[in-house]
């Protein structure tokens, strides 16, 4: 997880593309969750491939907590008419780890400075509205292995910790393997009891995947 990130943050519920037409110009607002500036840059680079005949791919993003990293670009439109309205939409909705790209196909009628500002803002707002917004939290994947004689006790313990049956994937083979995703805000309180289970050989495998996963907050 990048430095300065918050464990819990407000972000779009899903990636979304929303479209409308203003004086024959076609605007496509695209919302994406991004976790750092490199991911944002790579995502922005893909839009000319997605819409190769478009005239502009304007964008804004806001990443991280505390003092968020904020950048925007007019991408060839008159200064201040596209990037700032897009970034302003992200900030108004108090979103972070969020990129919005607005793609424009020019329809032959000039919109003027005020018209461009309004159109880019409207495209960004429409995309955010259709994506929805929720609290997200970083998670780590956890893999546990135990014998059949301990599996019921382990399942019961996980339920007491708040992991319902639908949050635990169970595989039955020579042993029982349980896979789950643990919110980072919860991980510290689980590490000690899980380590004790492993030390006492109740668990034959206890492994964390350190790659952060973004999931909707549930606790």
Automatic annotation (TrEMBL):
<dbReference type="GO" id="GO:0006446">
    <property type="term" value="P:regulation of translational initiation"/>
</dbReference>
<dbReference type="InterPro" id="IPR020568">
    <property type="entry name" value="Ribosomal_Su5_D2-typ_SF"/>
</dbReference>
<dbReference type="InterPro" id="IPR020569">
    <property type="entry name" value="UPF0029_Impact_CS"/>
</dbReference>
<dbReference type="GO" id="GO:0005737">
    <property type="term" value="C:cytoplasm"/>
</dbReference>
<dbReference type="Pfam" id="PF01205">
    <property type="entry name" value="Impact_N"/>
</dbReference>
<dbReference type="InterPro" id="IPR036956">
    <property type="entry name" value="Impact_N_sf"/>
</dbReference>
<dbReference type="InterPro" id="IPR001498">
    <property type="entry name" value="Impact_N"/>
</dbReference>
<feature type="domain" description="Impact N-terminal">
    <location>
        <begin position="23"/>
        <end position="127"/>
    </location>
</feature>
<comment type="similarity">
    <text>Belongs to the IMPACT family.</text>
</comment>
<dbReference type="InterPro" id="IPR023582">
    <property type="entry name" value="Impact"/>
</dbReference>
<protein>
    <recommendedName>
        <fullName>Impact N-terminal domain-containing protein</fullName>
    </recommendedName>
</protein>
